[in-house]
Amino acid sequence: MINAIFHVQATGCQWHALPKDYPPCKQVYNTFARWRQRGVWDALLALLRQ
Questions:
Q1: DSSP the chain
Q2: Can you tell me the distance from the alpha carbon of 29 to that of 17, in angstroms, rounded to the nearest whole number?
Q3: What is the spatial distance between Cα 7 and Cα 5, in angstroms, rounded to a whole number?
Q4: How many other C-beta atoms lie within 10 A of the C-beta of residue 28?
Q5: Which of 2, 5, 22, 28 is least enclosed by beta carbons within 10 angstroms?
Q6: How many angstroms separate the CA atoms of 20 and 34, rounded?
Q7: For residue 5, with 0-12 CB atoms within 10 Å meaning exposed, 13-18 middle and 19 or more buried, which class applies?
Q8: 1-50 pLDDT per residue, tens
């Protein structure tokens, strides 16, 4: 899941254009949206920057 989100962020591809190696795009997007809304995504990126 996290690799799929990173793929979208790194390449700028659209969610529905995720390669078939990743989970379904709707599932990936919903997870990302939930994490972003709860602040998980920002906290994860802050940890990675450290």
A1: -HHHHHHHHHH---GGG--TTSSPHHHHHHHHHHHHHHTHHHHHHHHHH-
A2: 12
A3: 5
A4: 20
A5: 2
A6: 22
A7: buried
A8: 999 999 999 999 999 999 999 999 999 999 999 999 999 999 999 999 99
pTM over 0.85: no
Crossing angle of helices 40-49 and 25-38, in 10° steps, is 80
Given CA atoms 48, 15, 23, 32 in this order, what sign does their dihedral have? positive
As a residue count, the chain comes to 50
